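Let's practice the habit of predicting before peeking. Look at the sequence and jot down your guess about where helices and strands might fall. Then scroll down.
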Amino acid sequence: MHRGRYFSTSSYYDRIFGAKAVKILPGQYHATDDDTIITTVLGSCVSVCLYDAVNGAGGMNHYMLPGDTGELSKSGNGSARYGIHAMKLLLEHVIQLGADHANLEAKVFGAGKVMDGMSDVGRQNADFAIRYLKFQKIRIAAVDVGDTCPRKIYFSPATGQVFVKRIQNRALSPDLFQSLQFPLHEGEG
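Done guessing? Here is the structure:
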C-alpha cells in the first residue's frame, strides 16, 4: 500500500457523523476500506469521489489544475496538485484496497468560479475529471460543479454517500470595521 507524500493522514473525530474523518487539502488524496469520512473544502479546485460500493473501498482527491505540462509529467512523478496525477494516485490506491474497476463509480464536485475577473480554471478542472473518468470507463453517478460558491464536501467511501454544504459568499459589512479597536488609516484614531 502506498502512502506517499500526497496521502493525507490528517484525521480527527467528526461529531456530526460520529466517525473518524480525514481532511484533505489541495494536492492531497485519501483512500480507505473502512467507515472513515473524507472531507475537504473546494473553490475552483475539483474533488473526485471514487468508490466501489460492492467491496467497500473508495477515496477522494483534491486537485488544483487539470494537467502538468512540465518535465515531471513526462516522468510520471508529478504533483497531485494536477488532476492527471491526482486521478492516477487515487485510482491505483482504491484498486489496491480491493476495489474492482468494473464496480467503480465517481462523483465530481467543485470547479466554482469564486473570484471575479479570473480565468475559469474550475471549468477546465471539471472538464478534465469528466474526460478522465470516461476514458477509464468509470460510471459518473453525480456531478455538482460550477456556480460561484465554495463547497464543503463530506464523503463516505464505504457507502458512496456525499454531503455537500454550499458556502455562500457574503460581502463584509462596513459596520464590522467600525467596531475594531485600532485605526483603519494613518492619522485616525
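How did you do? The domain at 11-178 is CATH 3.30.1330.200 (60s Ribosomal Protein L30; Chain: A;).
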